[in-house]
Design goal:
Distance between the termini: 32 Å
Family: Belongs to the enoyl-CoA hydratase/isomerase family.
Shape: elongated
CATH class: Alpha Beta
Number of strands: 5
Protein name: MaoC-like dehydratase
Strand order of the largest sheet: 1-3-4-5-2
Domain MaoC-like: 16-119
Helix content: 10-25%
Pfam families: MaoC_dehydratas (PF01575)
Radius of gyration: 18 Å
Organism: Streptomyces fuscichromogenes
Strand content: 25-35%
Structural class: alpha+beta
CATH architecture: Roll
Length: 164
C-alpha cells in the first residue's frame, strides 16, 4: 500500500513557467467580510454598511480587499507551500482590478516566476510567485507577486536536488 499526502513543493519541484490551478474555489460570505473587516479594524462603510453601500458606485457592499488577497494566496498553500515554506519575504505589485461582492466565488492560480537557491541560507531558496484570483465569471479580481523563502528537498525525499 502506498500512502499519499498532499503537501507543498520543495524548491527543486518548482520551475519558472509552471502554472498551478488551485481548487476548490472559495465562495465569500457576509460573515467572512465582516470578520476580517472588524478584526483588522477596517470600519470602511463600503464593507460594513449595506444601506450606505447601496447608494455608492457598485450598489452593494464590497468585500474587503485584504480578505480577497488573503484568500487568493491562501488557496495556493496546499499546492505550493504547506510544510515547505519558511516564510513570506514580501509582496509587490498587488492590484485589485475588479471588486469582489458577497456571494462571489474566488478561484486562484499561481505561476512560478523565478526560483533560486538562497545565497545566505543553505537548504533554502527564494521563489517568486505570481498569484491571480478570478471570480465565478472569470473576471480578474486580484493579482499579486510574492517572494517566499522555501525549503530545499531533504535527501531522504528522493527529490532530485541537482536541478537548482
Amino acid at each position: 500500500m502506498t500512502v499519499h499526502q498532499r503537501r507543498g513543493r520543495y524548491l527543486e519541484e518548482l520551475h519558472p513557467g509552471d502554472v498551478f490551478e488551485h481548487r476548490p474555489g472559495r465562495t465569500i460570505t457576509e460573515a467572512d467580510n465582516l470578520l476580517l473587516s472588524v478584526l483588522s479594524m477596517n470600519t470602511q462603510s463600503l464593507h460594513l454598511d449595506a444601506e450606505f453601500a447601496a447608494h455608492q458606485e457598485f450598489g452593494q457592499r464590497l468585500v474587503n480587499s485584504m480578505f480577497t488577497l488573503a484568500t487568493v494566496v491562501g488557496l495556493s498553500v496546499a499546492d505550493l507551500t504547506d510544510g515547505t515554506t519558511v516564510g513570506n519575504l514580501g509582496f509587490e505589485k498587488v492590484t485589485f482590478p475588479a471588486p469582489v461582492f458577497i456571494g462571489d466565488t474566488v478561484y486562484a492560480s499561481t505561476e512560478v516566476v523565478s526560483v533560486r537557491p538562497s545565497r545566505s541560507r543553505p537548504g533554502q531558496g527564494i521563489v517568486m510567485f505570481e498569484h491571480s484570483g478570478r471570480n465565478q465569471r472569470g473576471v480578474l479580481v486580484c493579482a499579486a507577486r510574492r517572494a517566499a523563502l522555501v525549503l530545499r528537498a531533504p535527501a531522504e525525499t528522493g527529490v532530485d536536488q541537482s536541478e537548482q
